[in-house]
Design brief:
Helices cover 50% and strands 12% of the residues. It has 448 residues and is of the alpha/beta class. It folds into two domains: 232 residues, Rossmann fold (3-Layer(aba) Sandwich); 169 residues, Glucose-6-phosphate isomerase like protein, domain 1 (Rossmann fold, 3-Layer(aba) Sandwich), CATH 3.40.50.10490. The radius of gyration is 24 Å and the shape is globular. It binds 5-phosphoarabinonic acid (PA5). 5-phosphoarabinonic acid binds next to loops.
Length: 448
């Protein structure tokens, strides 16, 4: 497996009574087996199953030809590709693109239009030329307010400058195969589109056309991305936590929250390229697991973003001395491709003898080791995922790993990790608010 997962510091042997006692996870083993069996039995149905999202790394393989063809058409059309989508229709794609974009072959520049901000949208439009721009609008439901509104603005801009027909050839849609406004638009106007499999919900969809199409258009090796996901899926076949890393992680995160009061789950990578991966993880964790449970405490530990080493100069103080209510996940890059010796002059050597013959990677490694040691000494449970590089294979594995961990953890809590009723409620209230509120669009409206 590309990833090495070190769980020792989650257990009581390393962090005393703040960690999970090995006997406790053993007693959970029968439930873990049941949870695993429930998912495994469902996965046999592929995309038709409830957990179809966990089959994407395999079930998308036959779709790759169509995705590559569509991506090639997009690449041939534009120098700037605007990806319109929000939440699960954006965060995973952004994370992978951000991690890899410096390594990609020449291709379109990607712009993510996600949050609604008239200032940013205007700035973006001012930087783009319609002749060189293409749009992909991505929404599973096909009707999310932020996405629809910004797509309308961008389409209108293209149509105004290029006319309806030329503008149509610069638009692509990824949405539900049957339902929603976007699907209807694709049909009515003949806009090329790819389907989001109905069983696959937003935050679990990055390995579907939701992520694969824009990433392929940007030049990401999506075949390898899926291969990374498949490798991870392969090592999660076993029903015993000892032989299934996702099951063991789920058990530990669950037990630490419900029995050790670790209500906060900090993810802290020591590699800048994973900065946005943490955003993706936070959404997946929060939206999947933050759920009410009848008659007992609500489910879910609060996911928190941190970055090594910068947060050593910020959050770490609190992590070490404030309430012991956190568990930590570190991500460590074990091999840096581009490293450099620290140049020391004679005078510098006297001041910094410990830097002699050291590289930049030695420094980040020392920072990481130091933080992990301090966190462990302070008896905070922590887990480390070692990655050998930042590439499509590793990212595919990380995505697959956390999707599985999240589903298993949700089932241990006894909640549905695939729905998001409160997010949907927010969407409905925003629409009601728009229906009832009069917008003052001209100064004359407020002048007497
Ligand atoms: O995970 C989810 O379901 C959400 O975060 C959605 O992805 C988000 O609300 C966007 O929804 P849609 O893809 O329908 O536009």
């Amino acid at each position: 497996m590309a990833l090495v997962i070190r769980t020792d510091n989650m257990y009581s042997d390393a962090v005393g009574d703040q960690g999970v006692h090995p006997a406790r996870i053993e007693t959970l083993a029968p439930r873990l087996k049941t949870v695993h069996a429930r998912v495994a039995e469902d996965l046999v149905q592929g995309l038709a199953g409830t957990y179809g999202c966990l089959t994407l790394s395999a079930t998308m393989v036959p779709e790759l030809e169509r995705i590559h063809e569509t991506a090639a058409a997009i690449r041939a059309t534009c120098q700037d590709l605007v990806v319109v989508g929000i939440g699960g229709s954006s965060l995973g794609t952004k994370a992978i693109w951000h991690a890899l974009h410096e390594t990609l072959p020449a291709g379109p520049r990607l712009h993510f239009v996600e949050n609604v901000d008239p200032y940013d949208l205007k700035l973006l439009l001012a930087r783009l030329t319609p002749e060189d721009t293409a749009l992909i609008c991505i929404s599973k439901s096909g009707g999310t307010l932020e996405t629809v509104v910004q797509f309308l603005v961008l389409r209108d801009w293209l149509i105004t400058h290029l006319g309806t027909e030329r503008a149509r050839r610069r638009q692509w849609i990824v949405t539900d195969p049957e339902q929603g406004w976007l699907r209807a638009l694709a049909r009515e106007e003949g806009i090329p589109s790819l389907p989001v499999p109905p069983s696959v919900g937003g935050r679990y969809s990055v390995l579907s056309p939701v992520g694969l199409l824009p990433l392929a258009a940007a030049g990401v090796d999506i075949d390898t991305l899926l291969a990374g996901g498949r490798e991870l899926a392969c090592v999660c076949q076993d029903g015993h936590f000892d032989a299934n890393p996702a099951l063991e992680m789920a058990a530990l995160y669950y037990l630490l929250d419900t029995e050790q009061d670790k209500r906060i789950s900090v993810m802290m990578p020591y590699v800048n390229r994973l900065r946005l991966f943490v955003d993706w993880y936070c959404q997946l964790w929060a939206e999947s697991l933050g759920k009410e449970r009848a008659g007992t405490t609500p489910a879910g530990s609060l996911p928190v973003r941190a970055m090594g080493a910068v947060d050593q100069h910020s959050q770490l103080q609190m992590y070490l001395e404030s309430r012991n209510d956190k568990m930590f996940t570190f991500v460590e890059l074990t091999h840096w491709e581009d490293d450099a010796i620290i140049p020391l002059g004679a005078a510098d050597r006297d001041h910094y003898p410990h830097l002699r013959h050291k590289t930049i990677a030695d420094i980040i490694d020392a920072e990481f080791q130091a933080t992990r040691e301090a966190i462990t000494d302070a008896r905070h449970p922590n887990l480390t995922i070692e990655i050998p590089g930042v590439n499509a294979f590793v990212l595919g594995s990380l995505i697959e790993l956390y999707q599985r961990v999240t589903v298993y953890t949700g089932l241990l809590y006894g909640i549905n990790p695939l729905d998001q009723p409160s997010v949907e409620k927010g969407k409905r209230i925003a629409i009601r608010y728009l229906q009832t509120r009069k917008r003052l669009t001209h100064l004359s409206d407020i002048r007497p």
